[in-house]
User: Fold this.
Amino acid sequence: MSRQTILISSLGESPAVVTEAIDKLELEEQIQFTQVITLGTKQNIVRQGEEILKQHIPVRYGDRIGYIPDSVDALDVITEKDHDEYLAKVTYWLRAYPASENDVYVSLAGGRKTMSALMALAVQIYGAKLMCHVVHKLMDEHLQRRMEAGYLQRFPEEQAELLHPASEELELVRFPIISLYSRVNELLTALGGANPSPENREVLRLLQSSGLIEQEGGLWNATGAGKKLLHLLREIESLPAPSSIEPKKKYVNLTDDHGKDKLKPVAEKLRDFPYAERIASTEMNSQFDHSRMIGTGNRRFMVELNPGKHDVLTVRIESRKGLALNVYTKATTASEAKRVKSELEKFLRKRI
Assistant:
């Protein structure tokens, strides 16, 4: 498959940080993005910004750029738990679009300073082609208020001007990246208490000097911070390989006798799930256990494993006939299938 050109951006109160990054990077790097992913919170003003981008990106850039909004469950990134969740969210998307197979650009311009710090930390582990901050050189308090999502929603006639300032008004600040992704397995080994191979003993020195492991009685043990990093890496690396297919090009096969019209909106959303290879309708079953459904009202669903077919997950949506879709992934083991099932459930909670 051809390489995708991805922008991953933090998102706060202003969606302009995303469109500014698209415009400035496409101009200076001579690229065209195929996918934009924003990472924010559940705060109302952030969700307003997502809605503006959902409507504006197709109008401004046509169908060449897909847009995937994502967020942590918190209203703001304040507590230690919130920060851990945000870091996990960033690493999830970086791992979903490997820098070795895609051209990944990361913008730190939106949201809280700690959100930017967490993105920078994740990039040093999983890598990217470029990490940057786009600065509006004419920014002042009045302009900042006008660029907030609430103002842009009230005055849509001003969106084109505020979301796309002149290039000379923007400064692209590039940051260095030292990717450790090629050494993730060694990091996992050392953080887990086992000694890496003799030729890779520098990993121990790196982790020790960073305060992530300590030696006790000749054994290496992870510190509190090291245990958090170990948990994060284990969770991410337990996923199967992501799909290398651009979301809009993923194959979707729906048939009339399986409830095509009702399944189509869900199937279209499933294209954005980074571990979905293809989506197909499957036989209906009205006898399934409705008590296992997740969600509320008409948005209830469930995800089922298929014993012996680790690469197939079945999504059933709330309906009298038991309408269902098969989602095909690259999972090869039961543990990978279970892990990707968990992520698919998280994805569907937010998207249907």
Remarks:
- The chain has three domains: 5-175, 181-237, 247-351.
